[in-house]
Amino acid sequence: MALEKTFAMIKPDALEKGIIGEICKRIEEANLKIVGMKMHKLDRPRVEGFYAVHKTKPFFPQLVAFMTSGPSVALALEGENAIATWREVMGATDPEKAAEGTIRRDFGTNVERNAVHGSDAPETAALELKYFFDQNEIVQYEWM
Ligand code: CDP
Ligand code: MG
Q1: Per-state percent for the chain, helix, strand, coil, to nearest 5
Q2: Catalytic pick from 7, 89, 117, 133?
Q3: Which atom of ligand 1 is nearest to the CA of 51?
Q4: pLDDT at residue 2 in the model
Q5: How would you classify residue 134: left for phi > 0, otherwise alpha for psi between -120 and 50, otherwise beta?
Q6: For residue 31, how far is its CA from the centre of ligand 1 (angstroms)?
Q7: Is the pLDDT of residue 17 over 80?
Q8: Which of 96, 118, 39, 47 is nearest to 72 (CA)?
Q9: For a pocket test of ligand 1, which of 63, 104, 105 has the largest count of ligand atoms closer than 8 A to its C-beta?
Q10: Is 40 considered catalytic here?
Q11: What is the pLDDT of residues 53-97, one digit of tens each?
Q12: Which protein residue's CA is at the shortest distance from atom 16 of ligand 1?
């Protein structure tokens, strides 16, 4: 087991539903610490950069429109195996295919409006954290 950091996002559909608190509660119940948190309304270039890996996919234009449609919350999470743990708590991309009790199963609307984002590997976690947070915006808990 390793102490890791990962990047998470609470997407505009979840803010519209008023479930920031519920999602943060599930993060904390999974023994993940929120070590960075900021709210913003992303503009097009920022979303296009964030999701650059998907830019040739047919769903890309719609995804960019969705992610710029309203405010979202960027989070830095820390914990044992944080990357895999957070992916597990989120559930599969498509809420219909996500396991019982996962955030996407419980709160996702469809494969696009699926409430949350999570980095999928150490490399992407490092890149995505850097994309959204300066070093001094991520706290270090002495007691962790
Ligand atoms: O978010 P995750 O890593 O589970 O899935 P992804 O394959 O990296 O896709 C990124 C995001 O694109 C998803 O979370 C969805 O919001 C969106 N997407 C979509 O709109 N339609 C698809 N068929 C697949 C993904
Ligand atoms: Mg992904």
Answers
A1: 45, 20, 40
A2: 117
A3: 10
A4: 87
A5: beta
A6: 25
A7: yes
A8: 39
A9: 63
A10: no
A11: 999 999 999 999 999 999 999 999 999 999 999 999 999 999 999
A12: 112
Q: Which helix (H) or strand (E) holds 82?
A: helix 82-90
Local confidence band at 9 (pLDDT 50, 70, 90 cut-offs): very high
- Ligand 1 pocket (Cβ < 6 Å) reads 54, 59, 63, 93, 111-112, 114, 117, 120
- CATH architecture of the domain covering 3-137: 2-Layer Sandwich (3.30)
How many of the other CB atoms lie within 10 Å of CB of 6? Answer: 27
Distance 142 CA to ligand 2 centre (A): 31
Q: Specify whether the CB–CB gap between 76 and 122 falls below 8 A.
A: no
Task: Give the pair of three-digit tokens for residue 51.
Answer: 């999701």
pLDDT of residue 141: 80
Which ligand gives the minimal distance to the CA of 66? 1
Confidence grade of residue 144 (pLDDT, cut at 50, 70, 90): low
